[in-house]
Amino acid sequence: MKTVEKEVARSLMEIKAVMLRPENPFVWASGWNSPIYCDNRRILSYPQIRENVCRWMADIILKQYPDVEVIAGVATGAIAHGYLVAHMLGKPFCYVRPKPKDHGTGSQIEGLLPEGAKVVIVEDLISTGMSSLAAKNALVKAGADVMGMVAIFSYNFNQARKAFEDANVELTTLSNYDTLVEVAHETGYIKESEIAVLKEWRVAPSTWGK
Questions:
Q1: Is residue 208 included in any domain, yes or no?
Q2: What domain range includes position 47?
Q3: Does residue 209 sit within a domain?
Q4: Which of 10, 56, 90, 180 is 20 to 30 Å from 19 at the Cα level?
C-alpha cells in the first residue's frame, strides 16, 4: 500500500491536483490558512492517472468489501470518480447531494438505492470528514447498509480520524498528507527547512499561520 500512496502523491503533484505553498499560503472558504491546495477533479483530465486511481480504489473495494452491491459517490467532487469505480466493478451507482433538492422530488440521493443495499462510498478528498460522514448518514437514513468509505486523498487531520472512529466508519485512502510531504521532499518539490512548518499545519490547521 505504501507504494500506491507514494505513486498517487507523485501523480497529484505532477498534474497540479495538489500544490504545496508554505511560504504563500492559500486561504480556504472556512478562513483557514493552508500550505496545500487539493483539487482531485484534475485527475479526470489525465486518462492514465485517472485509470490508475480508479482501478486502485476498485481493487480496495473488491478486497475489503467483496459483498458490495452499490457504489455511492459524494457530490460533487466524487461523482465522476465514483461512477468510474462502479463501472469497473460492474455495480450500480448513485450519488449523494449535500442536502435534499428544494424542488421536484426533494431527493438527496440520485440513482437507484434498494432498501438494505450494501454500499461503499467513494470520496475524492477527506478534510474534517464532516461532509463525508453527512453523506453516510443520508445513505443510512435511506435504508442503506454502509460498509465503508474509500477516498483518493486525506489531510490526515486528527479531527477527521476521531470523527470516523466515533461514527464507526472504516476509511481507506489511496494517499495522504504525510506521504505527500515525504514525496515532495524526496523529489525536491519542497526544502527540508519547510518540512516542520508543513507538519505543524496538519496538527493545528485552524490556527496555523495566524
A1: no
A2: 2-203
A3: no
A4: 56
Distance, in Å, from the CA atom of 181 to the CA atom of 34, rounded to the nearest integer, reads 14
Coil, helix or strand at residue 72:
strand
Q: d(Cα 15, Cα 153) in Å, to the nearest integer?
A: 15
What is the tally of structural domains in the chain? 1
| Residue 31 backbone dihedrals phi, psi, to 5 degrees | 95, -5
Strands 18-20 and 36-38 come out as antiparallel
Amino acid letter, residue 151 = A
Predicted TM-score (pTM) of this structure: 0.95
Tell me, yes or no, whether 146 lies in a domain: yes
The CATH number of the domain where 78 resides is what?
Answer: 3.40.50.2020
Instruction: Let me know if residue 102 belongs to a domain.
Output: yes
Amino acid at residue number 1: M
Residues, the chain: 210
Amino acid letter, 75: A
Amino acid (1-letter code) at residue 192: E
pLDDT of 109-161, one tens digit each? 999 999 999 999 999 999 999 999 999 999 999 999 999 999 999 999 999 99
